[in-house]
Amino acid sequence: MAPFEIDLRLRTLDELFNSLDPSPLVERDIDDAIEDYMIDFVQDAPHDAPLVLVLHLPAATLERLDAGVVEKSVVNYFSFLSDRQNRQLRLFMRESRRDALVGLIFLIACIAGSQAFRAFVPGVAGALVSEGLIIIGWVANWRPVSAFLYDWRPAREKARTYARLASLSLQLREDVRPAPSPFPV
User: Fold this and answer.
1) Which residues make Cβ contacts (< 8 Å) with residue 117, sequence separation at least 6?
2) From CA 102, how far away is CA 117, in angstroms rounded?
3) Residues whose CB is less than 8 angstroms from the CB of residue 82 and which lie 6 or more positions away in sequence, other chains included
4) Tens digit of pLDDT for each residue in 40-51?
5) What is the pLDDT of residues 60-112, one digit of tens each?
6) Of 16, 56, 85, 143, whose CA is between 20 and 30 Å from 103?
7) CA distances from 150 to 2, 56, 101, 143, 145 (A)
8) What are phi and psi of 62, to 5 degrees?
């Protein structure tokens, strides 16, 4: 399959990176706006297409760059994000399992309380409190059920997107567009 290109036109390489990050090039963070742009672009890419980040830069800037170092920097950044997202997902699932255990114990206690209440308090009042305990037990389990059914999927998808971006290759191309005039025409 043909590679899916993410094109970025920059005046300098510094525009690619967070201006507040003083780290060496290989360890620098990508600028937030560019990161969001790349993530949005990848979500539109075919799932089996290899990704290529194409940086369009002025010729004078290209002469001073080592494409391998720039690619390593971008790959390192998205590898870090992928690893961090996977750790957060594992932590979320561990907390969800603990929540499910607490919810199950609470549900068992509510069912036992419901049965005991129904046995010792006959009539409508006993039935009302008994049913209320069962409802409370099930409602208390909504959070763990929601976590296992729905909440983990966006985090997994985000981790996959970061992993895809961590596997991209980089191309440097000369930006052949004329430089904008400082004076409006």
Assistant:
1) 126, 129, 130, 133
2) 22
3) 159, 162, 163, 165, 166
4) 989 889 988 999
5) 888 888 888 889 999 999 999 999 999 999 999 999 999 999 999 999 999 99
6) 85
7) 33, 40, 18, 10, 8
8) -60, -35
The DSSP string of the chain is: -PPEEEEEE-SSGGGGB-TT--S-GGGPPBPHHHHHHHHHHHHHS-TTSPEEEEEEE-HHHHTT--HHHHHHHHHHHHHHHHHHHHHHHHHHHHHHHHHHHHHHHHHHHHHHHHHHHHHHS-SHHHHHHHHHHHHHHHHTTHHHHHIIIIIHHHHHHHHHHHHHHHT-EEEEEE--SPPPPSS--
Token duo for residue 28: 């620098």
Contact between residue 135 and residue 115 where contact means Cβ atoms under 8 Å apart: no
Residues 58, 11: contact at Cβ < 8 Å?
A: yes
Phi, psi for 5 (deg, rounded to 5) = -95, 135
Q: Give the pTM.
A: 0.81
The per-residue DSSP string of 48-82 comes to: TSPEEEEEEE-HHHHTT--HHHHHHHHHHHHHHHH
Nearest of 105, 129, 106 to residue 119 by alpha carbon = 129
